[in-house]
Write a sequence for this structure.
């Protein structure tokens, strides 16, 4: 069931979202060649705790990290590891959320490690812009299919592919609430968007082919083609005045 938030609940939720966005900003500033993904994760843990919040993902379904840190062909749910060093030319997706006062925030971005290839940069740029297109379509009275179509059409026009098996979601009291928010769809189809809905829109975009598979560790999702993948996410609120991005530092 979709839970509509009151304006007081939205105000409370902004705090969790601001901290989540702060963590992502900290990640972007910390990432450098040679650091392990576990080191990056511990920096994010310390930041979230310093803000009085708790990492939303830590222990969620048994997940062992503060953030999902996914490198190159890893799409989502990468596990922070002391054995995984970020290398010059990698791209790294960081997905991180924080919970405080009973509300969650959730956001993600893909970062360049040092200098990356022009194609890797284009993949990141297109994915980030596809999120902006999805958010712009998230108007009260529009439908979920309008969001998905906005993302998918932009990504496919750029020659890339949208992951189908994993989607965005409602967010608020719980990290994952109804509804599911696919990054593909048909305009005018699906649930109607109403003021008070809070959703995470999170396009996952593969350079080649939309298909993915999960590794034997039970978490990490990688592209089936082995191509690079990028991921951007914001938590937003649907309002009468239009979509509001809650995950701003
Ligand atoms: Mg999410």
């Amino acid at each position: 069931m979709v839970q509509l938030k009151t304006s007081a609940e939205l105000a409370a939720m902004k705090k969790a979202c601001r901290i989540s966005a702060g963590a992502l900003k900290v990640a972007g500033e910390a990432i450098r060649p040679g650091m392990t993904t576990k080191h990056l994760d511990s920096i994010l843990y310390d930041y979230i705790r310093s803000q009085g919040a708790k990492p939303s993902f830590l222990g969620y379904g048994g997940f062992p990290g503060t953030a999902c840190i996914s490198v190159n062909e890893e799409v989502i749910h990468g596990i922070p590891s002391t054995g995984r060093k970020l290398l010059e030319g990698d791209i790294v997706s960081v997905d991180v959320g924080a919970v405080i006062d009973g509300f969650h925030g959730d956001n993600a971005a893909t970062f360049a490690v040092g200098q990356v290839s022009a194609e890797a940069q284009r993949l990141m740029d297109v994915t980030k812009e596809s999120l902006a297109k999805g958010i712009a379509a998230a108007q009260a009275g529009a439908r979920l299919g309008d969001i998905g179509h906005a993302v998918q059409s932009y990504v496919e026009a750029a020659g890339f592919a949208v992951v189908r098996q994993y989607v965005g979601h409602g967010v608020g009291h719980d990290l994952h609430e109804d509804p599911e928010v696919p990054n593909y769809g048909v305009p005018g189809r699906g649930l109607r968007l109403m003021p008070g809905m809070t959703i995470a829109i999170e396009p996952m975009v593969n350079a080649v082919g939309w298909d993915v598979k999960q590794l034997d560790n039970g978490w990490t999702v990688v592209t089936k083609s082995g191509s690079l993948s990028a991921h951007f996410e914001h938590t937003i609120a649907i309002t009468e005045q239009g979509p509001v991005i809650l995950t701003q530092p």
The CA atoms of residues 43 and 201 lie 25 Å apart. Helices lie at 7-30, 37-50, 118-136, 144-157.
